[in-house]
Specification:
alpha/beta, about 130 residues, about 45% helix, single chain, 5-stranded parallel β-sheet, Rossmann fold
Length: about 130
């Protein structure tokens, strides 16, 4: 990671950033330069872009352009994500959501999302709800 800010972008934050949707301004200029996304979430983003009609390679390039690094889904993160199921069940979080949170927890990073249900999570990390 090259920059000062350590931030993890959720699969909902990346399209908001790409399309400059409301809330994208909360990602300051230095955050995208230092942001990472997990491979699971990047697959979600690419899938959404392809479903909207983009060529798969173009969708991948667009999605990946928003982050400084793409992080693999590790065994440690899998264990963290599995452990979060009871804490996040009331908010209806998916495996993809929990994989994003697991990455942020493992990196001790902040996380950016558009998912309002994450606002009340008590997981020992800072969650920025973009809108």
């Amino acid at each position: 990671m090259t920059g000062k800010v350590k931030a993890v972008l959720d699969a909902s934050a990346i399209p908001a950033l790409l399309q400059q949707e409301p809330g994208a301004e909360k990602l300051t200029d230095d955050v995208p330069e230092c942001a990472v996304a997990g491979a699971v979430n990047m697959a979600e983003v690419q899938s959404g872009l392809v479903a909207k009609g983009l060529d798969p390679d173009e969708a991948w390039e667009d999605a990946i352009s928003t982050v400084d690094a793409l992080e693999p889904f590790t065994g440690e993160q899998a264990k963290i994500a599995g452990s979060l199921v009871k804490k996040t069940a009331p908010s209806g979080l998916s495996l993809g959501d929990r994989s994003c949170l697991a990455l942020a927890i493992s990196l001790k990073a902040e996380v950016y999302t558009t998912e309002r249900s994450w606002k009340n999570l008590k997981l020992g990390l800072r969650v920025h709800v973009m809108r």
